[in-house]
Design brief:
Elements (H helix, E strand, L loop, with lengths): L2 E6 L7 H8 L5 E4 L8 E5 L2 E5 L12 E4 L4 E2 L1 H13 L9 E4 L3 E2 L2 H13 L12 H9 L12 H22 L7 H13 L5 E2 L1 H10 L4 E4 L25 H6 L8 E7 L2 E3 L12 H7 L18 E3 L1 E2 H11 L3 E5 L9 E10 L2 E3 L8 H5 L1 E9 L16 H14 L3 E5 L7 E3 L2
Parallel strand pairs: 1-10, 1-11, 2-5, 2-10, 5-7, 6-8, 7-9, 11-15, 14-16, 15-19
Antiparallel strand pairs: 3-4, 12-13, 16-17, 16-18, 19-20
Bound molecules: inosinic acid.
Amino acid sequence: MPIIIAVGMQWGDEGKGRAVDLLSEDVEIVARYNGGDNAGHTVTVGDKIFKLHLIPSGIIHGHTIGVLGNGLVLNPATLLEEMEMLRQAGIIITPERFWISDAAHFITPAHRLIDRAQESARGKSQIGTTGRGIGPSYVDKCARRGIRVGNLLQPEAFREKVKQHFEDANKLLTILYRQPAIEVTSMAEEFIGQASQLIPYIKCVGMQIRHALKYHKIILAEAAQGTLLDLDQGSYPFVTSSCTTAAGIFSGLGIGIQPVDRVIGITKAFQTRVGAGPFPTELFDKTAAFLRGTGSNPWDEYGTTTGRPRRVGWLDLVLLKYAVEINGATELFLTKMDVLSGLDEIKFCTEYLMDGIPVSELNFSGGAAELERCQPVYRSTPGWQADLRPIRKWKDLPPQVTKYIQIIEAFCGIPVTQVSVGPERSAVITRE
Ligand code: IMP
């Protein structure tokens, strides 16, 4: 069955956007199945830099259909902005090539306010959410009072539902969080005006994809965030509110369990994280500053969505192996290898000391609490000084780079098939 899944192996920001852009060359449909505009995917094409939060980056290719599945939560204001930004850049965004699931849920301005109010109420235990209203929208979905995209097709009932939502949100905001009340009528009308502009793009996405599969079309499913932010399998509670792993594709797009051709695990050659939560291999020294960059380049380690500096550290192979297993990854796409050029040695974590006892396999059912008890045990391999950015062939990679790749492969038990060595579309080396 022609399904390819591209999934992040870390805490998000692995470079999925550019990997998906590249993989999209040979597929017909590119589909997102989870999350919302908390995601940030950066793709560099020629002198253009696209920063996408919702629309799958594969839509930049003229031949693809871009899809937002039922597993997403959508803020119509940011979605419309993104559609316009792509149009301005010459990308065609029409109902023929951009579909939104009728069963996806909306994020409203009230969800954003609740997200921020809840974060400040958490005090020292903040999760460090993106403030985009993701959690509160999924809460409404699970509580079976969410506003679905398909509700737009019955305008009067939709208006009532939206007003009721804002009135309920007001109670929560004012009584529980002691925040100012929202002006229900004006906010509801503005929201309805924005959401209604999406009506032409509404589709029963699940059915369309099931049909496409019958005709052997190739579907590329793009996860948002990363495995370690998964609501169930990640470092709970420092996670997002959706299923970020490969498993999410079936319920998030509305298709049956199909044999999947490839599960491409995308990982940086080092480790990063935004927001709070345990990070065993985190660095705070001059190597951290080296890996993060100064922020003067769009590909430096600063959040695409929030602009926050990312926490950085050495590659954690214990976590990577866990992510490979959880997702059933068949291969790895290693990004940002060029960033490591100039280091004398490259460290990587192969086991932890948990309360002084060596562990090489993670039991994540303890969530963050378990990871917090782990001290990393490092091994190292020689670094390299060569600038990797001009290299385009595997055989031209310095031997120290191929040795590092072999270490990762041996530990994880799957091959590395692609390595990125710069931000441009062409700066990816595919293994011959
Ligand atoms: P939320 O998804 O905004 O609720 O945030 C929950 C956690 O997930 C926070 O630690 C965020 O920083 C993190 N997060 C959400 N989206 C992304 C992403 O696309 N990349 C990296 N971290 C993310």
